[in-house]
Amino acid sequence: MMRYFNNFIFLIIMSALTGCANNIDVDVYQERPMKNIYETAISYLENEDYIEAATEFLEVERQYPYSEWAEKSIIMAAYSFFKMNDHNQTIIQSDRYLSLYPNSNNAAYASYLIGMSYYLQIPNIGRDQEFSLKALEQFTSVIEKYPDSDYVNDSKLKMDLTYDHLAGEEMEIGRFYLNQNLFIAAINRFKIVVTSYQTTIHIEEALARLVESYMALGIITEAQTAAAILGYNYPGSEWYKDSYNLLQNDGILPKEDTNSWISKAWRSVSPI
């Protein structure tokens, strides 16, 4: 009985395999003219069908891996993924392009695409800084490796905005500590902004918060120094007015102590 059963199972399996073989689509792999595939990809791209465009561009490389069109197709696939906000694939394809064609005319663009992919993933303030740091690293690479490229100016702009973001994270944490009367912890956060992010939009508030924190601790010379630097560099700032009034309430005027860490940091840190 078991022998007949085994034979029956064997026949079923063989029948299934035969059926599968008969139903195989012989066109699964179809070699197509290189130019036709590329033009199809361009057509999809123009119609904003980015998934199909990326698929076709990669098909060019798959069928004609050592051709001139393969190089073009990889960077175009990266661009297609970028347009559909698939940042992971954008980075993968751009990295692959750079590894294969490091000296090509499109190397700067591939590097820029990687930076933009990280930049667009920078989360809201208060979350992990990983993407911010990777974006900075990549934009720095664009500027240093391809100083004459068309992507340098925007890379510099994106770096400035990323620095603003990082400074904003430090300010948010510092304000939290300040509101909890944890003045030393708050000072440590504002200090990062003063020492590392002087050219960001947060520097005025950082100096003013240092005045507030040091006054709360009774460390007058540091408060005076922060206020003096704030007033000298941003005399019309509302933050300076608040800091000045805070000192005046105790009969104190802004006065820079050149031995203060604030003074030394301000004068030693070069523009970002």
Describe this structure in words.
The protein has helices at 2-23, 34-46, 50-63, 68-83, 87-100, 107-119, 130-145, 152-179, 183-196, 203-217, 220-233, 238-248, 261-268. The protein is an all-alpha fold. It has 2 domains: 34-163, Serine Threonine Protein Phosphatase 5, Tetratricopeptide repeat (Alpha Horseshoe); 181-268, no CATH class. Helix 5 runs antiparallel to helix 6 (107-119), helix 9 (183-196) runs antiparallel to helix 10 (203-217) and helix 10 (203-217) packs antiparallel against helix 11 (220-233). The longest helix has 28 residues, at 152-179. The radius of gyration is 30 Å and the shape is elongated. The protein starts with a helix and ends with a helix.
Largest sheet: none
Shape: elongated
The topology string of helices and strands comes to HHHHHHHHHHHHH
Radius of gyration: 30 Å
Find the CATH superfamily of the largest domain: Tetratricopeptide repeat domain
| Overall CATH architecture of the largest domain | Alpha Horseshoe
Low-confidence stretches: 1-27
The CATH topology of the largest domain = Serine Threonine Protein Phosphatase 5, Tetratricopeptide repeat
Give the helix tally: 13
Sheet-strand content, in percent, reads under 5%
Number of strands: 0
What's the level 1 CATH class of the largest domain?
A: Mainly Alpha
**Mean pLDDT across all amino acids:** 88
In whole angstroms, the N-to-C terminal distance is: 84 Å
Fraction of helical residues: over 70%
Indicate how many domains the architecture comprises. Answer: 2
Structure classification: mainly alpha
